[in-house]
């Protein structure tokens, strides 16, 4: 039998079956998880009392001047007993160091014949870059440097903005604490770990004592662009209490579902905007059909009477999401703090390998989708880099007790490696199989077409329809929530038509990083500019 015959008669049917199964599972998982969130939103959690868990909301910030007032107001207004929670904003000296370094770039920028908005990204808040570019370009050439320098020096840093707002504690709402991390390198995880080392100063004034209260303390991690539901902390407290009542122990991780439904900024026009809008829906699909679905499966495996071999086969690798990730304080300490370079994926992987208890929160949190391609490419590359070496996470927690057997750990590692291989090679392989199905018989072609439709257009159309309802589940603490992206009928049709190509978009970040590594070039991961 020739290679072509093996491909057409064996490989193609297997790949088509996998595509069909994956499409069916994705559609069912998204639908079930969306319905669960929609139903949960109608049931308010039981308000916590003075015996409820201690909750510390951690807001690490880097170049977030534009969002600081709104974010601080939103989180300090969360509904929870004032004497049992605190909101901590962590700024970093890395921003100050970069600001002093970047000041040396001003003469080159001022000498540019026409200064573009994109050239100012990272120097100023994104919302101001366009206006500043206009002001500099309008100035006489000999005065451009002076104008740009004056604008640069007048721009407050995140630290200065937070410090000004934190000087006056709100009369109502949660206690607000501002911490500033020294320039010790690292990323978001370093800022979070800096806060952990200062818990006595954060919660001590409220009567918290480490030796007595650590086991009833949880750390709630968020991004600066997040908009929380007013019921969020009560939801965490109820989830922790219910889990402890069921199992006799607190959950190691409570994951709130992140929904990328804040339309603060429009997608750009043209092909780039279409790609980014498609990725927005793909992120929503992943949030519901993979991240939430796995956590709900994990919770069921933890609380149900399931034979150990079946539990080991079904146990998923959990992907922590650093916007709404709530971790038990003793668990973080056992892990040695939040891991670099991605505190969320790393934490989820390590807790999965320990067989830790992980529970979903029924109240969602909103944040922004990506509206620029560079940030999206960096995200995919960094996520792949963190996920591709589960063996490293295994070694990092090898000294800690685990409820998993050695075989269970091996299965998790192999499953994650299979996911990464599928990420890199799945889209081109499946596309080749779908094209080849034309020569594999009518049945194979029909199944291939069904798989493509389920995995792409049908699921995309359903997600577009779910967006308004999911957005409406979140009750803001203050003011008005930015509306969800609303594709026009024409854009919606394009998104549905182009949806089968979206898996290829996710290849750009990982493959770019791999090729740069092969050619001896390092890959830098910048933050998303707001």
Question: How does this model look, in words?
Answer:
The protein is 56% helix and 9% strand. The chain is of the alpha/beta class and 530 residues long. A 7-stranded mixed sheet has the order 3-2-1-4-6-5-7, sandwiched between helices. Helix 5 runs antiparallel to helix 6 (144-154). The longest helix is centred in the first third of the chain and has 39 residues, at 3-41. The model has no long low-confidence stretch (mean pLDDT 91).
Biggest β-sheet: count, sense, barrel? 7 strands, mixed
User: Strand fraction band?
Assistant: 5-15%
Distance between the termini: 58 Å
Number of helices: 22
Q: Count all strands and give the number.
A: 7
Question: What is the radius of gyration?
Answer: 24 Å
Form type = globular
Give the uncertain stretches in residue-range form.
none
Given helix and strand content, the structural type is alpha/beta
Bin the helical content: 55-70%
* Widest β-sheet, arrangement of strands: 3-2-1-4-6-5-7
Oligomer: single chain
Summed over residues and divided by their number, the pLDDT gives a mean of 91
Run of helices and strands: HEHEHHHHHEHHHEHEHHEHHEHHHHHHH
